[in-house]
Amino acid sequence: MAEAYVQVTTTTDSRKEAAELARSAVTERLAACAQLIGPIASTYWWEGEIESAEEWMVLFKTTTDCFEDLAAQITEQHSYDTPEIIATPVVAGSAEYLSWVREQTTE
């Protein structure tokens, strides 16, 4: 049976919070790696208005087995009322890298 991997994305309004989310997920082995990207410009609907904000994106590299726990941790620690938590399946990747992801997310 093939292993299943995902890349999970969230955004936040500060580099500090993004770094805290990343470190927490890696420390708890819910992600093998977390990358911060930013600042990025976001435009979105919120409470009936179009908003624009500078945000930081966090990309977590993990397994589908860890997704629910990672999503729960992001939700608990995130400052947003409705944080973005999107899992994108990894369709293909180097066997060595994916093996490393699996090893790092297994206690």
Labels describing this entry:
107 residues; alpha+beta; Alpha-Beta Plaits; 4-stranded antiparallel β-sheet; 4 strands; 35% helix; Ion_tolerance_CutA
What does this structure look like?
The chain is of the alpha+beta class. The protein has a single domain, classed as 2-Layer Sandwich (Alpha-Beta Plaits), CATH 3.30.70. Helix content is 35%, strand content 38%. It has 3 helices and 4 strands; from the N terminus they run E-H-E-E-H-E-H. Strands 2-3-1-4 form a 4-stranded antiparallel β-sheet. The two termini are 21 Å apart. The mean pLDDT is 95.
Number of helices: 3
List the quaternary state of the chains.
single chain
CATH level 1 name: Alpha Beta
- As for the number of domains, it is 1
How would you write the strand order of the largest sheet?
2-3-1-4
What shape does the CA trace take?
Answer: elongated
Helical percentage: 25-40%
Q: Which class do the helix and strand fractions yield? A: alpha+beta
- Write down the CATH topology: Alpha-Beta Plaits
Mean pLDDT figure: 95
Q: Spans of 5+ residues with little confidence (pLDDT < 50)?
A: none
Q: Give the N-to-C terminal Cα separation.
A: 21 Å
Largest sheet: 4 strands, antiparallel
Gyration radius (Cα, Å) is: 14 Å
What order do the SSEs take from the amino end to the carboxyl end, as H and E? EHEEHEH
GO biological process, one term: response to metal ion
Family: Belongs to the CutA family.
Pfam family, one: CutA1
GO molecular function, one term: copper ion binding
